[in-house]
From TrEMBL:
<protein>
    <recommendedName>
        <fullName>Endonuclease/exonuclease/phosphatase domain-containing protein</fullName>
    </recommendedName>
</protein>
<keyword id="KW-0540">Nuclease</keyword>
<dbReference type="GO" id="GO:0004518">
    <property type="term" value="F:nuclease activity"/>
</dbReference>
<dbReference type="InterPro" id="IPR051547">
    <property type="entry name" value="TDP2-like"/>
</dbReference>
<dbReference type="InterPro" id="IPR036691">
    <property type="entry name" value="Endo/exonu/phosph_ase_sf"/>
</dbReference>
<dbReference type="InterPro" id="IPR005135">
    <property type="entry name" value="Endo/exonuclease/phosphatase"/>
</dbReference>
<keyword id="KW-0227">DNA damage</keyword>
<dbReference type="GO" id="GO:0070260">
    <property type="term" value="F:5'-tyrosyl-DNA phosphodiesterase activity"/>
</dbReference>
<feature type="domain" description="Endonuclease/exonuclease/phosphatase">
    <location>
        <begin position="53"/>
        <end position="246"/>
    </location>
</feature>
<keyword id="KW-0460">Magnesium</keyword>
<feature type="compositionally biased region" description="Low complexity">
    <location>
        <begin position="20"/>
        <end position="32"/>
    </location>
</feature>
<dbReference type="GO" id="GO:0005737">
    <property type="term" value="C:cytoplasm"/>
</dbReference>
<feature type="region of interest" description="Disordered">
    <location>
        <begin position="1"/>
        <end position="32"/>
    </location>
</feature>
<dbReference type="GO" id="GO:0003697">
    <property type="term" value="F:single-stranded DNA binding"/>
</dbReference>
<keyword id="KW-0479">Metal-binding</keyword>
<dbReference type="GO" id="GO:0006302">
    <property type="term" value="P:double-strand break repair"/>
</dbReference>
<dbReference type="Pfam" id="PF03372">
    <property type="entry name" value="Exo_endo_phos"/>
</dbReference>
């Protein structure tokens, strides 16, 4: 569903269609809602629109609440069906075992780069119908690593540059875990800014492991990383961890709610006229804001979840000040 203000940026690669909606028709119901979202930013134009899904899949482990017989293959099939149902242009997965080997989704491909985080791999998938309009004829990716990880397969994120005149990146992250990891998370995001360029616009979608008190310090210069703009009245970070309702690890799990996985963004200033590129969630036919995959999987009498995290999805408008 990538779109410029005048339509698709480029002709997309030809291939099997299998009844998918076109890029233009899929966003038709969302198009009328865009002006309201734009009204929050004066004198802007839309450079591109895309749909992003992010999910920490917890290694495709079996939920403690799953019925007998449920296995890894079932979890992979469920996620593949979810991806096909919502047709995201870009899929950010975290905690993927074996670098994504063994997990394939028709009409999607994995970016030819994976990063080993503190727990399993970070893998990004692109819808093949969207790839040329989004990224051009080849992937321009950056592995994000701490200095001591340089030259290895380890890191904390994978950034993909969009096919725009201004430097704009989509970043899939799995940042340092736990409350005491706040200093390392700040360092990781600082290194991201340095590596991608302080003038680049950045959309982060992944398991940031951030706690609410951290957001104030992250929003300050030079990082300037903030929650993404959402339609009025909608939460910018729904609870993507809820061990009250999701007993993935069993009944002994300490119950709490948090927004570890979320969208974060940083506006960019790059052109000679100091144009500002920013991001905003726009309403779509799927949701008024960020869509949270919090409903349990139903199988016979059992209700359980794919992961200890909830996945999330949104339609994102990339805006440029005039």
């Amino acid at each position: 569903m990538p779109r410029t203000g005048q339509g698709v940026a480029r002709a997309i690669r030809k291939g099997p269609y299998n009844g998918r909606q076109s890029l233009a028709s899929r966003s038709a119901s969302a198009r009328d809602a865009v002006p309201a979202a734009r009204a929050q930013v004066k004198h802007t134009k839309e450079l591109l629109k895309l749909r992003v899904l992010s999910y920490n899949v917890a290694g495709f482990e079996r939920s403690a609440q799953a019925p007998p017989g449920w296995n890894t293959a079932d979890s992979k099939a469920h996620l593949a069906a979810l991806i096909h149902a919502h047709q995201p242009d870009c899929v950010h997965l975290q905690e993927v075992p074996n670098g994504g080997a063994g997990f394939h989704v028709d009409q999607y491909r994995a970016v030819d780069a994976t990063v080993v985080s503190h727990c399993e791999h970070i893998v990004t998938y692109i819808r093949m119908e969207s790839e040329e309009a989004l990224f051009g004829p080849f992937d321009r990716f950056v592995k994000l690593q701490l200095p001591e990880q340089a030259g290895s397969e380890f890191g904390f994120g994978l950034a993909l540059q969009l096919n725009l005149e201004e430097p704009v990146f989509l970043v899939n992250v799995h940042l340092e875990p736990f409350k005491e990891g706040a200093i390392t998370r700040h360092e990781q995001l600082s290194l991201m800014s340095s590596r991608l360029g302080h003038k680049a616009a950045v959309l982060i979608a992944g398991d940031t492991n951030t706690r609410k008190p951290e957001l104030k310090s992250l929003s300050k210069a030079p990082l300037n990383v903030t929650p993404i703009k959402v339609p009025q009245g909608m939460p910018d970070a729904p609870s993507t961890w809820d061990s009250f309702s999701n007993r993935f690890r069993g009944e002994q799990t300490f119950p709490f709610r948090a927004a570890f996985s979320r969208f974060l963004s940083r506006s960019g200033s790059a052109s000679a006229v100091n144009a500002i590129v920013s991001f905003a969630v726009v309403p779509s036919e799927l949701a008024r804001g960020i869509l949270l995959f919090e409903s349990p999987i139903l199988s016979t009498k059992h209700g359980f979840h794919l992961s200890d995290h909830f996945g999330f999805l949104a339609d994102i408008s990339i805006l440029q000040s005039m």
